[in-house]
Each structure stands twice: as C-alpha cells, then as structure tokens.
From TrEMBL:
SUPFAM superfamilies: DHS-like NAD/FAD-binding domain, Thiamin diphosphate-binding fold (THDP-binding)
Catalytic activity: an (R)-2-hydroxy-long-chain-fatty acyl-CoA = a long-chain fatty aldehyde + formyl-CoA; a 2-hydroxy-3-methyl fatty acyl-CoA = a 2-methyl-branched fatty aldehyde + formyl-CoA
Matches recorded under Gene3D superfamilies: 3.40.50.970, TPP-binding domain (3.40.50.1220)
InterPro entries: DHS-like_NAD/FAD-binding_dom, HACL1-like, THDP-binding, Thiamin_PyroP_enz_cen_dom, Thiamin_PyroP_enz_TPP-bd_dom, TPP-bd_CS, TPP_enzyme_TPP-bd
Location of the Thiamine pyrophosphate enzyme central domain: 212-338
Origin superkingdom: Eukaryota
Keywords carried by this UniProt record: Lyase, Magnesium, Metal-binding, Pyruvate, Thiamine pyrophosphate
Protein name: 2-hydroxyacyl-CoA lyase
Upper lineage: Eukaryota, Viridiplantae, Streptophyta, Embryophyta, Tracheophyta
A GO cellular-component term linked to this record: peroxisome
Length: 576
C-alpha cells in the first residue's frame, strides 16, 4: 500500500477502539462477545491485546476488577448491550467497593432507536451511575480516542475505581481515515498522559502533620501499624517494611494486605489480633479503611482512647472517619517522606519493649494452640486438616509464591488463619464487600496478570458453584490454576435446621442450605479433558496436590468434608 493509500484508507470504530487501547498500553481484556461488540474483540486480538472470553459477564467482570488490583492499571471488561451490561455490573460494583481500577465497555443500540424498544436496549449510563467514578457515551467515532484515554486516566487516579464507556452500535460502524485516526490518538495521548486528569494532583503532606504523626508514634506506649490492600495496590511494601523495622512497631495486615510483610515476620500481630487492636494507644492505618473489617475503629474491639493516624489517598475517607490525624496521599509516597523524617531522628521500640513482648508472646501462644489442632489428622475431614496439608504444599513451592484465591464462609475464614502469605498481592478473597462468586474470575485474572505464578483456589462448594463453568475457560487457555473445592454438601455444611424448623407443606424439600450430597465436582474438569481428583484422606490430598502443582495445568481437587464441620456463616454468625 502506498503512503497516499495509507492516509486515505478507512478504518471503522471497532478498529479505532482497539488502536486506542493498544496505544494506551492495554494488554488484556476480559468479556463475553456478541452483538454489537464481536468485531471489537477480534480487532483487539489482532493488535496484540489478549482477549479472555468467558461464559458469563459476572465472572469476566470480577476478573477485570482483580486484574486492576494485581497490575495497578485498569482491567478492561467488554460486554454486549442490555443484559450483558447488567451482568457486568457485578464486576464494576466490586471494583468500586474495593477501589480497584477498571473500565467496562459495552455496546448499545443505535442512537436513533434509543427509547423505542430496540434489541437489548438499555440506558447503560444511568444503570452504571452508582458504581463508577465517571462514564462516557461516545456519539461519533471521532470521540473514541479521547474517551478511552480519559477513562483509563480517571480509573487509576486518586482513589482508584470503575469507569464506563458506552459505544452505540451505529457509532461502531462509523469510519474515518487512518491519518485522522492517528491524529486523534496523538492528541488524546498527549492530553491525558502528559497532563493527567484535571483537578487530580499529588497530595503534599505538610511538615507540621508529619511531625505530629511522628510525635504521636514516638510517645505511644502501645503503637500498632495496620495496612491493607490500598498499600498493596500502590506497591508500598518496601516502605511498609522500612517503617516497621526502623520503628520496631508490631503490624497487623487486613486479609488482602497479608504478604506485604511475611506472615512469619516476628513483629506480625495477626495471631494476637484481639490484643493488638484492643490495647494499642496509637494506630497508624496505611491504605485500609476503618470499616466493618476493622470494626469501624470503635469500642469494644478498640480502646475508646486510641489515636488513629490514617494514611489514605482519599481526603473524603479521612473526613468520614475523623481520626486524630489524617495524611492524605499515595501510601508509598507518604511513607517515603515519613521514613526519611524518622531516619533523621530515629527511635525503635526494641524486642524487649513490654508491648512488643506482649504481642510476640500472645502470638506465639495462639500459634502454638492452633498448631496443636492442625497437627491432628481428622477423618472424615474437618476444615483444619486439609487446610494444613494445603498450607504445607504451598509453602513447599517456595518463591515465586502461588497466588491464593479464597471464597466461602468457612473455607475462607479458616484459610485466613492457616494459610501463610509471604509475598505481596498473593491473596485474593471476598474483599471489602464479602462478595461470593469471585473465585474463578479472580483465578483467571491472577493467571494472566502473573504468568510466572501458580494459582491455587481454596473454595467452598457454594462459592465454587457461582462460577464453576469457567473451569472450561481455564482449560481453553491452559492456565496454571488448581481449584480445591471443600465439599461439605451445601452452604455452611448442608442441613443445619433443628427438628422444630422442619415443617410446612414443603418440609420434605432439601434445606435451603443443602446441595446434592457427594457431588462429583472433579468430573466437571474431566469433562473438558483435564485432571480431576476426589480425595478424602490426608495421603490422597497430598498426592493430588503434589501431582497438580507439578503439572501446572488446570485441575479440580474435590475434597470431601464432614458436613457437620464448620459453622453457619463462618465468623459472621452475628449478622445472620
């Protein structure tokens, strides 16, 4: 093709969207194709973007949200119009609540047919409004590059979150010349890459606030450092480690903050959590919110006199919690400055400090008690015996550590206490929203975001059921994911009713919490040509783990659990 032909050659909007994504550095996209976005996915693949096609937009959306967390750049979800968009809201809302960067793109009906009852018609911009930082509807092809770059920038700026792009079907069919496309791409890239998002600036912590924070920490008798997935997403692990080791202050990670510092670190207070939060007098909270996961920072779990120093990217979060002191900014940047000031006037509690000793002694005591329970081989399996075997198998793999995905009431709760995280961003679970159904989507995101790591899912049978069909997606893309299903016959463990509750015209129906006993979940993986395992003894589980971990291929291990093991609602009985 000659240069003159290149400048006059036409491309359609599908091609321009793909070119915009590629120019912006997007390498992966998740979704379900169909009218009117199939060509968009095909064009993206042709330009080097890996498209992971799912069976359901809900799982694809969860994958996109987790991808944003694991990589720090927005995960992309592509859906069809109407129902596809609605299904995708699960992932978009999950990104919003967990504050992960994500962009959802949906096709929609022709603009001239909006409101006339067209095929899969919806007002998607209104539908997504509660769950996004911003949304854009393009009305002509020329608006696409600007919209794509804007949404990528907004999704990842300030407190990360979800954004939405609506592209009507008639716009997808519009064309423009290659030359015009390149000009628009250059302008969009220059505008949003060099200038950033209007109104979003890096916060600068004042010297007075820094000195106030350091003074509070220095004078504290029982200081504590808490960090969460906000510190993980901004890659603040080196700064967190320096702060902990320079000051000698015990630390407590939130569930998905685990691994920023190894769970095995001598200053880890996870095994002494009640003592740590109940008795600390100054708590530095880094990239975590004082929400239900941290008991809102209120008595009786916390002391009424505790002083919170909150490090958060969002000033609104600090205004909501009204702490002793708020330091607004990216956790990594704030801690760099904080560590420098401490270095210039150092202090350290030391291992013989009474508070440090109390935390270490209580943690050692609780770990010893737990290890005593874990040491027993209980058959039929309770939750502890197989979890110990899984823990030991994961530890045996060394580094790079596998990414652990966990969901389910008992499976997730027990896993938080037993499984050991030693590296950052290697635990994904139900998160801030307590979302069930994230499992397989998270697994797929982890496998494509971190191809050097094995992915191990520890799933309750109820949690697995939400997205079980996506095992076919694992096989299709040959992703190194081992799914371990704790099969105890239902939600919490099958029929937990007392006899007085079994009454009424449908009393012979299974309990609302019951599934088919002895379900052969492992056969689902075999249906697609990969290996499934049914295990019920320690030796069978050890053998299955050794073989599947070594193979680094898709596998399902169906672990038979005593239906009477575990508790209703896990550790959330008071909410049910």
């Amino acid at each position: 093709m000659t240069s003159s032909e290149t400048t006059t050659a036409l491309i359609d909007c599908n091609h321009l969207v793909a070119k915009s994504l590629s120019r912006a550095g997007i390498t992966h996209m998740f979704g379900v194709v169909g009218i009117p976005v199939t060509s968009l996915a095909t064009r993206a693949v042709a330009l080097g973007i890996r498209f992971i096609a799912f069976h359901n937009e809900q799982s694809a959306g969860y994958a996109a949200s987790a991808y944003g967390y694991l990589t720090g750049k927005p995960g992309f979800l592509l859906t069809v119009s109407g129902p596809g968009c609605v299904h995708g809201l699960a992932g978009l809302s999950n990104a919003a609540v967990n504050t992960w960067p994500m962009v959802m793109i949906s096709g929609s009906c022709d603009q001239k047919d909006f409101g006339r009852g067209d095929f899969q018609a919806l007002d998607p911009v209104t539908a997504v409004k509660p769950f996004v930082k911003t949304s854009v509807k393009v009305t002509k092809v020329e608006e696409v590059p600007d919209a794509v770059f804007q949404l990528i920038s907004v999704a990842g700026s300030g407190r990360p979150g979800g954004c939405y792009l609506d592209i009507p079907a008639d716009v997808l069919h519009e064309t423009l010349t290659e030359l015009e496309a390149e000009r628009l791409l250059d302008e969009a890239e220059r505008k949003f890459v060099s200038e950033g998002v209007e109104g979003v600036k890096d916060a600068v912590v004042s010297k007075d606030d820094l000195y106030k924070a350091i003074s509070a920490i220095r004078k504290a008798e029982r200081p504590l450092i808490v960090f969460g997935k906000g510190a993980a997403i901004c890659r603040a692990e080196d700064e967190v480690k320096l702060l902990v080791e320079r000051t000698g202050i015990p630390f407590l990670p939130t569930p998905m903050g685990k691994g920023l510092l190894p769970d095995t670190h001598e200053l880890a207070a996870t095994a002494a959590r009640s003592l740590a939060i109940g008795k600390c007098d100054v708590c530095v909270v880094i990239g975590a919110r004082l929400n239900w996961l941290l008991h809102f920072g209120e008595p009786p779990k916390w002391s009424k006199d505790v002083k919170f120093v909150l490090v958060d990217i969002d000033e609104g979060e600090i205004e909501l919690r009204k702490p002793f002191l708020g330091l607004v900014g990216d956790a990594k940047k704030v801690l760099k400055v904080l560590n420098k000031e401490i270095k210039d006037d150092p202090f350290c509690l030391g291992r013989n400090h009474p508070w440090v000793q109390a935390i270490m002694n209580k943690a050692k005591e609780n770990v010893s008690r737990m290890e005593g329970q874990l040491a027993k081989d209980v058959v039929p399996f309770n939750f502890l015996t197989p979890m110990r075997i899984i823990r030991d198998a994961i530890i045996g793999l060394g580094s790079p550590a596998p990414i652990v995905v966990s969901e389910g009431a008992n499976a997730m709760d027990v896993g938080r206490s037993v499984l050991v995280q030693t590296e950052p961003r290697t635990r994904l679970d139900a998160g801030t929203w307590g979302t069930m159904g994230v499992g397989l989507g998270y697994c797929i995101a982890a496998a494509v975001a971190s191809p050097d790591r094995l992915v191990v899912a520890v799933e309750g049978d109820s949690g697995f059921g939400f997205s079980a069909m996506e095992v076919e997606t694992l096989v299709r893309y040959q992703l190194p994911v081992v799914v371990i299903v704790f099969n105890n016959g239902g939600v919490y463990g099958g029929d937990r009713r007392n006899p007085r509750e079994i009454t009424g015209p449908y009393k012979d129906d299974p309990a609302p919490t019951s599934f088919v006993p002895g379900a052969k979940y492992h056969v689902l993986m075999e249906a697609f040509g990969e290996k499934g395992y049914l295990v019920g003894t320690p030796d069978e589980l050890k053998s299955a783990l050794t073989e599947s971990f070594s193979a680094r291929k898709p596998a399902v291990i169906n672990v038979t659990i005593d239906p009477h093991a575990g508790a209703e609602s896990g550790r959330m009985q008071h909410k049910n």
